[in-house]
DNA sequence: GGGGGATTGTTGTTGTGACAACAACATACC
DNA sequence: GGTATGTTGTTGTCACAACAACAATCCCCC
């Protein structure tokens, strides 16, 4: 039972607001990811797929470079290659060569992809309203997004990306 | 380029504060997870391992039921079984039978586990200070934790667990 | 006290992501 | 023009997590 006083002392360092925030971020992320994922199952649309479709839908020409998409999705390029493989096999996306850089590939939204993303919008929004909109009011949601964005940007700056 | 007006309209639903918050939560989580993970690599201590060790260190007797630990870690019980397998193989944890319930197993911190968790405390805290403490002041960190906790609790309430 | 149903933890299977190595290509320099 | 340097995307291999099926145990109520 008894730890040496020294070790115990250093373990107490984990009682820290930043550790708390980090832990809470992980737990909230997992809970939300699982909850929304279960709800989107009936569309056969995993959360990361929807993430890709949304980002494409928002981009001019509904297309994005693989590398850029990987950065946006916080994934490795190889991870994105596999992800796009699957989404393409499902017909929601297809690849086009980049006109001005023959190394590059563009992930492009297909009509089917646009369709399913649009169909999932209503229920997904309803889920998020239940999950986030109920415990937090509009101001608080804005606050949360802002705090998270500042951390995200800072981490990206520091880590070179 | 032109989507049917109808589809486009439904796609616009994704321009929503709740979707924004959700996306930012995922991105921030991934960035922070990767950044802290890279830093902890030199200890041979993946982030989830540290999560387990910290939770055990905080529990009376430095021990916790498998199921409870799984809930705390937001993991499936099978996922936790494998995770504890690995941590146990590394010698940071060992399993004991539950005295009052012969089905149950307790994950118990070993001296070596306590030692490595204590050793990682200082550098990990320094990382979090750089990653979270720099962009956010103390009040904002508290705010962030509070907002996240409220969402997490609400999701847990709704989703039965 | 003895079934029926729930709970606890492990296992086989499957899917997904990261890392390293590679080939194709672009860009800058001389 | 040709070579050096860096980038882009795919693949092999590995680690990790979820789901489903299962075995052991507990609980409860008749």
Mean pLDDT of chain A: 91
Structure classification of chain A = mainly alpha
Describe the oligomeric state of these chains in a short phrase.
Answer: homodimer
Helix percent of chain A reads: 55-70%
Shape, principal axes of CA atoms of chain A: globular
Order of helices and strands of chain A: HHHEHHEEHH
Task: Tell me the number of strands of chain A.
Answer: 3
Strand fraction band of chain A? 5-15%
Q: Output the strand order for the largest sheet of chain A.
A: 1-3-2
Distance between the termini of chain A: 45 Å
Q: Please give the largest β-sheet of chain A.
A: 3 strands, antiparallel
Helix count of chain A equals 7
Report low-confidence residues of chain A grouped into runs of 5 or more.
none
Can you put this structure into words, describing what you see?
The structure is a homodimer of 161-residue chains. With 161 residues, chain A is mainly alpha-helical. In chain A, 66% of the residues lie in helices and 8% in strands. Chain A has a 3-stranded antiparallel sheet with strand order 1-3-2. In chain A, strand 2 and strand 3 (105-109) form a beta hairpin. In chain A, helix 2 (17-40) crosses helix 6 and helix 4 (66-72) crosses helix 5 (77-89). Chain A is globular. The mean pLDDT of chain A is 91. Chains A and B meet through helix 1, helix 2, helix 3, helix 6 and helix 7 of A and helix 1, helix 2, helix 3, helix 6 and helix 7 of B. The structure holds a DNA duplex (30 and 30 nucleotides).
């Amino acid at each position: 039972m008894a730890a040496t006083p020294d070790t115990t002392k250093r373990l107490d360092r984990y009682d820290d607001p930043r550790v708390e925030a980090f832990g809470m971020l992980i737990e909230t992320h997992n809970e939300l990811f699982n909850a929304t994922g279960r709800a989107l199952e009936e569309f056969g649309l995993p959360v990361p797929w929807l993430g890709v479709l949304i980002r494409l839908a928002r981009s001019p020409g509904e297309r994005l470079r693989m590398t850029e998409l990987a950065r946006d999705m916080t994934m490795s390029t190889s991870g994105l290659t596999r992800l796009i493989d699957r989404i393409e096999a499902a017909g929601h996306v297809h690849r086009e060569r980049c006109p001005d850089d023959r190394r590059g590939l563009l992930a492009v939204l297909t009509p089917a992809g646009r369709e399913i993303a649009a169909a999932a919008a209503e229920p997904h929004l309803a889920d998020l309203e239940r999950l986030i909109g109920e415990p937090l009011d509009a101001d608080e949601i804005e606050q949360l997004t802002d705090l998270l964005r500042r951390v995200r940007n800072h981490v990206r700056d520091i880590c070179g990306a």
